[in-house]
Amino acid sequence: MRAFKPARRGPYLLSLAVLALLSACGGGGDSKEEDKHSHADHSIDTAGRLAVAEKGSAVLRVHDLDSATLQASSFTLDDAPSGLYTSPGGRYVLAAQRNKDQLQFIDGGVWQENHGDHLHDYKQAAKALTWKLAGARPTHVDVQPGKQVAVFMDGNATSQPVQNAAVRLLSDASIASGSLLASLDLAAPIHGLAEPLDNKLLVVHRAADAGDSLPTHLQLYQREGSAYRVDRLLATRCDGMHGSASSGKYTVAGCKDGVLLAKHMDASTVLDSKLSAPLRISTLAGHAKLPGQFIGIGSEGAAPGPVTTRFFAIDAEAGSVSPLLPKDWAEGRVRRAHAFDRSGTRLFLLDDLGTLTVMQRQGNAWVHAARLPAAIATMPTAAPWPAMVANGAKDEIYLSDPQASQLLVLDSSKAELKARRALGYVPAALTWTGISR
Length: 437
Known about the structure:
Elements: H1 13-24, H2 32-40, E1 49-54, E2 59-64, E3 72-76, E4 83-86, E5 92-97, E6 102-107, E7 110-114, E8 119-123, E9 127-134, E10 138-144, E11 148-153, E12 166-170, H3 172-177, E13 182-185, E14 194-197, E15 200-205, E16 217-224, E17 227-233, E18 244-247, E19 250-255, E20 258-264, E21 270-276, E22 283-286, E23 293-300, E24 308-315, E25 320-324, E26 335-340, E27 346-351, E28 356-362, E29 365-372, E30 388-390, E31 396-401, E32 406-411, E33 416-422, E34 427-433
Antiparallel strand pairs: 1-2, 1-34, 2-3, 4-5, 5-6, 6-9, 7-8, 10-11, 11-12, 12-13, 14-15, 15-16, 16-17, 18-19, 19-20, 20-21, 22-23, 23-24, 24-25, 26-27, 27-28, 28-29, 30-31, 31-32, 32-33
């Protein structure tokens, strides 16, 4: 903002000061062109930044995607991150450190603020926050885009004393202030998940007669200030529960025999049902711009025999689960990475041979769009596997190549490889931060 300095004192001082304040944010005049120009000045054309963890290291690099050389700021965390996630507003990197029982936060430096009459973009240097979120075994992180994120802490059954599972709710604003929106402490350790939707929270529950250590049900909680109140246990059973996603008015969770479907009817009402599948669904993917549509992922077969990844298109509104068959996905092929593009209409699938398959949403179905053999020329034989993430500001997908120490840049609208960028280190987890368009 430019300061207004009057040339002289006089009876017009107050009116001039008011004029200066109005003009600084584009007001005070009746010219639509002037107002349009002023508001345009608050927009920044930026591709955002990419946070990348280094294999076996506590070093985290934040690459500037506007830089021709992928200029990076480096940060040394307390421990190697077990996962990287982006805050609901796109500004912060959440670096989960499961073995260290904490999360650390990096300000990506690119964000947007709502100033009432216009949206104001900012781009500053990335920086580490001093605040850390402590909790036993942070594992699953589920985001309600633009609003909030729930961090599920599994707890630790082998510690003395035993550490129970817990949920911590955050937003961009709470991260900035080093505080929580709300907390929920469970009565036992459990490998689980928590899906937030406005004031509702769906959290795992394990029945006494469960056949293994995994959850069997979802329990509905209602937020009351900084705490949660138990509403009810959803009756639908989901043995072997693992993986979840939410979009639109639906939440899905993976089960041994299909998918648990929760439909959010209003601020407090949830209807639950089961959608059957021929095998266990252990991973679910959804996109905010594709409400009620999900991809279910499961494995067919068991070692030492061939294991094949199978995909399912889940239509929550229709209540259907249909096999999704990527072109030339042969027996024995295993998924190593997947991602939607920013529109939610293209799905990228990387197999264990390094082939990238792209599927396009067409009407109510997924169809083949492209196939890129040997996108990753030499696949690793152990983790870290290649990781993939979409840019929310432009039509790009980023795919890491651990063996070549490279980052592949793909044009997601054309399903084409644009560039291979040398990193100079072995990449592990990655996540994008910035202003989604």
